[in-house]
Amino acid sequence: MTGILSSIIWAPFLPLWLLAALAVISLLPGLYGTIRGGRGVAWRTGAILLGLLWLANPRLTHPHMQTQPQDALLVVDVSPSMSIGERRKLVEQARSQLLEQGRKLHGLTLHQIEVPGGGGQGTRLFEAIDHAALSLNSPAGIFLLTDGMDHDIPDQLPPSLKDATGRIIPLHLLLSARGEETDRRLRVLSAPPYVIIGQTAHIRVQVDDLGTPDGQPVDILEHRPDGQTDVLAHTKSGQPVELDVPVTHAGITLKELTASPLKGEASLRNNSTIIRLQGVRDRLRVLLVSGVPNQGARVWRTLLKADPSVDLVHFTILRSPDTEDDTPLSDLALIPFPTHELFAQKINSFDLIILDGFRNQNILPESYLENIAHYVRKGGGLLVVGGPEMTQPGTLQDTPVGSILPAHIPADDAIITQPFSPRRTALGLSHPVTQALPENGPWGREWGPWYRALRTDQTQGRTLLSTPSGSPLLILDQRGQGRVAMLLSDQIWLWSRGEKGGGPQAELLRRLSHWLMKEPELEEDQLDAHIEQGRLSVTRTSLTPLHDVQADIIGPDGHHSSLTLSPEPDHQGLWSGSMSLPVLSDQTGQIWTIQQGGLNTTVALPDANPLEDQDLRSTATKLSSLTGRSGGGVFWLGAGGTPAIRQVVEGHALHGSDWAGLPLHQAPLSTGSTSTAFLPGWLALVLILALMALGWWREGR
């Protein structure tokens, strides 16, 4: 009503003051007559006032209106899930047909964007729509070409579905299928991150049927490297299943589990899952025996006690067993050193023995030292950290332990007492213990200096660190089934104190101790592989020269192929090669097996789109609510084809069974307007005569 009144203008035939005076003159007698009970007076007065209103000539103004141009957004989902079946083909056909229709409609401009999705973030259509809608001048609607799987659907209508005046614009959903689809997926509910070698991992999995009721029979299978499968369990969808997986070796164990297909499901891509189990040894036991108390002992204690998987036994020997001491036993602060228990009864229970600054001086009987050498030959690990005590009487190299040491220290002129920065040898650049040591850090271009080292006159094994002059600092060797290492300086603790920037002390000692305890990732002879961007890269590490290195690649389907590995020019002992992987069907599997020189390893295709692969259906269930609230329609491209675009008058329905509408909005022009009489003359005459007749009839009764 307010809008109508605001559009009325006055064009009186007589001056308004005259019309107002006549109205008052006619109104007063009318009121008096009505009060006195005169019949028909009110009707005659109304006829006079109606005539005066006609003389005032009220008119309705009508501004000149113009239809606004239309901007519509064409959003095309090109996420990885759109590669399933004929989805991409259906969407491309619909895109070209919509663009062709848009070119034929007057005033309509179609703006198209593509939403890639994937990358671990899923499909984020509305994030792209919100950004693109900012550039639309007159938004009239959005066409969304997708499989219906979006991962940023808002709870309320977003600002991108409204124009500048707050009017809601339609969101039309064009789905790349014939109708609602079904999908089956296999989920891992729980799996241990670490499993002790020799024990069994308890895995809990569940098969879900999406788009159809659960409870259907399903088999859980395991893919073998030869391409065959084993049935692990018979179950029903929607029910958790417990599986036992034995872990027989250290490092990563890969298991591929697959759920049997659901009839008519959209894709088999998420019917399989890869389980990665990290095999670890039970708690590692380390025996640390220090000679005279020194700064290095604290470094070792800090490093080993910080590792929750290590049980550390640490003793510092301050006196020999035969030292006479008249102090009463009740006043002694130190317990007797349990030499027999440690070096005879329980020596084989340790994974590593560290002798730091240890000088024998008849502290340990010859038989115990022989036990240490026997322990190493039978598979144990020994680390000797040498200092000046290695040049004094009673040195370890003059005991049975000397037979397993990889270096010999001369009695004279054996101590280097000048500053030097440790360096990696050519072999150290390739050896797993020192290869990955960081070169950059607070120390600048070189690691911080040490100020004392031992000179050798005989070495064997592999030298990984040396002084700038070439004198060995870190030597590794294998004795029998065990391993031994010698660090020919007792000043690595300077790195932990940050001497001139320090160095990678913690990482070096950690990798060195784990190599001695035979951790798989630090093996000198190993085979590694990884898959990235569709290429398989294989690296072979061997400190023994190899010739004509060929790797046997076994695909998930059991097919064999050969890959030539070439030596790395800058890294001694490394051979590498890569190849493009063929595209396999979803039913084939995901684990590749690589064999070379008696070694083998497995690698799985990376799960590039975990969020995208959770549900691979084409469905309207996720977006239909938002589409309905916007006034848009849902269309299945595989069943009804591409809908026709219609320009619809505002206020009418915006979609039908085979068409999608875009509302036409009109805006007034500022150039002029037209007007029409609010009270036409013929209507005024009829109403006046009618009122006069009513007054005459009323007066006559």
Could you explain how this protein is built, in words?
- The protein is α/β, with parallel strands linked by helices and 701 residues long.
- Helix content is 21%, strand content 33%.
- The strands form 10 sheets. The chain has an 8-stranded mixed beta sheet.
- Helix 4 (87-104) links the parallel strand 3 and strand 4.
- It is elongated, with a radius of gyration of 45 Å.
- 33% of the residues are buried.
Task: Set out the fold topology.
Layout: H1 2-6, E1 8-10, H2 16-35, H3 41-56, E2 58-67, E3 70-77, H4 87-104, E4 108-115, H5 125-133, E5 139-146, E6 171-175, E7 183-190, E8 194-196, E9 200-210, E10 217-223, E11 229-236, E12 240-246, E13 251-259, E14 272-280, E15 284-290, H6 295-305, E16 310-316, H7 339-345, E17 352-356, H8 366-377, E18 381-385, E19 407-408, E20 415-416, E21 423-424, H9 432-435, E22 453-454, E23 458-459, E24 462-466, E25 472-479, E26 482-487, H10 493-496, H11 505-516, E27 526-532, E28 535-541, E29 550-554, E30 560-564, E31 566-567, E32 574-580, E33 591-596, E34 599-604, H12 624-630, E35 634-636, H13 637-640, E36 644-649, E37 659-664, E38 666-677, H14 681-700
Parallel strand pairs: 3-4, 3-5, 5-6, 6-35, 8-14, 15-16, 15-17, 17-18, 18-26, 36-37
Antiparallel strand pairs: 1-2, 2-38, 7-9, 9-12, 10-11, 10-13, 13-14, 19-23, 20-22, 21-24, 24-25, 25-26, 27-28, 28-32, 29-30, 29-33, 31-32, 33-34
